[in-house]
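Subgroup meeting minutes
Present: P.N., E.W., G.H.
Scribe: E.W.

1. P.N. recapped why we're keeping a running log of single-chain structure predictions: easier to compare across weeks, and new members can see raw inputs and outputs side by side.
2. G.H. added today's entry (293 aa).
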Amino acid sequence: MNPPTSTPHHSETTIALALILAIYACVRVVEAAPTHIPQLIVVAVDVLSALTFALVHGALHYRLRGILVFTGICIVVGNITENLSVATGFPFGHYYFKELMGPKLFHVPVLLGIAYIGMAYVSWTLARLIVGKPYTPVTGTRIVALPLVASFIMVAWDLAQDPVWGTVLHGWAWLDGGPWFGVPISNYLGWYGNVFTIYLLFTLYLRAKPAPAIPNRQANWPAALLFYALCAGGNVLQAFHHADPETVSDPTGKQWRVADITGASALVSIFVMGAFAAIAWVRLAEQQKSTTD
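Output recorded in log:
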């Protein structure tokens, strides 16, 4: 099923998305540069700009009710699993949050609880493009295929980010350490199951309440692609920042070179996150060509 192509283009939404992308790009540069801006402010702008992007872009595709359902699923599932893991070690591993991300709800910072929403939405949007026929109703194999692909896309982001935020910036501490620069393998297995649950619940919602097809010009697919690419680019920038100190230790006492951590993050961002962005871009180009033929 092809979307309709005759409704007016919403320039106000395009301007809003462009402004949000500009703010997000600036904050990713600030994160990688030495500044005197308090880290909590930088983190808050990062998280809130991603949240705002998801709400604005998501309202185009799912109307306000749909994107609020997605937001609610992310907040509820994310906070339950994070609090459960801090308390018991399941599903991510044994860890606790430090003060970098501000006030907490129970064991989990409020900012982390809403940090799920922006990247989860963007990863989901890329998955729609990669799986193909994004306006096809979510039924049959798509109920599982979309969560499977979207979860890989989002875990790629966490694979790049977690050692930097955990081991270098000390936003949280992995009590038992781990082979991925102080992060345990259980974190990524748990993360995959966590976000798969979020996406599966959303696909079940969409099966019951199908999203409306919208014009390609109004869909603003490139904005979501650019957001994901900007996130990957911000990770790469961190590799060019001279670390002081040059080494950090995890809670087990193991020493890690900061340059190795940021370098590995850059490689994952280029060759894993970048691969997902490139495939989604190709699929988008194919889709746009098919609608104009």
